[in-house]
Amino acid sequence: MNTEAAYPIGELGKKWTDGDKEIWFQQQQKKRSYFDEVVTKLDSLNEHFIIEQYGSLLYDAENYPLYALKSLNWLEDKPTILITGGVHGYETSGVQGAIRFLQTAAQPFQEAFNFVVLPCISPWGYETINRWNPLSIDPNRSFYENSPAQESLAVMQFMKTLGLEFMAHIDLHETTDSDNSEFRPALAARDAIEQKSWNIPDGFYLVGDSAKPQALFQKAIIASVEKITHIAPADNDDKLIGVPLAQVGVINYAARELGLCMGLTEAPYVTTTEVYPDSPSADDETCILAQVAVITGALNYLITL
């Protein structure tokens, strides 16, 4: 289905003007609280983690502090793991899954790994349940030099200050039915391009980096997650979201070329999760637990190397 004409903002066949983008922004409303649902939970983690503000976002007179958590018992000879959530603010289980891992599952791995965790990269998107930031920019297509997305730029600047080599980077995401009903039509309208709705996979899947797919690493994560929730089957063309299947539950993207958060570091082991919260076989808690299972499955694999 061509969704180019399915969005009420802009003129068909023409890219959005600044005025169109302002109309879109003015239509967005706060639906939940970043401070109540995210920041307050971080305060309880200071016994085992250093909580550091790495930046802030000022949008429409609202100031959003950006937080990272680092292992308190940091040792230079341990490999370091980067975990990111909420690059797309509307993808709730990515944010809450990162926090839940820190709350319930991180401690047994602290002897083996250092952790850097950015649980909610896009707090405005979290509050308004949006894929884009207020300037109608997708942060997860904006991890490149001189990024136009404040969210992505703040993360990249923070990474430079850390000066660390990471063993792995796990980026926590969701694929929702709203990708077809809202976000892809909006993208088609904004950029005056044709977008075809795809079948949203019913279940969990991973996106690896085509430059370093690490098939055994991805397979170990799938094995961990399938204990919690079902893995998305491929469609009739052996694809997920239009991309050929690399193995069960795994597709690969060119992370750096697409400006994805997954391509942020030189880590040899990287993955992006995709939980499906709209499945009739899942609920919010299952999705959060699936994100935790991703991280623990990855760490249990990495600890054996």
From TrEMBL:
PROSITE patterns: PEPTIDASE_M14 (PS52035)
Gene Ontology molecular function terms on file: hydrolase activity, acting on ester bonds; metallocarboxypeptidase activity; zinc ion binding
Keywords: Hydrolase, Metal-binding, Zinc
Pfam family, one: AstE_AspA_cat
Domain of life: Bacteria
Domain Peptidase M14: 30-305
Matching InterPro entries: AstE_AspA_cat, Peptidase_M14
Reported cofactor(s): Zn(2+)
GO BP field: proteolysis
Family: Belongs to the peptidase M14 family.
Identification of the protein by name: Peptidase
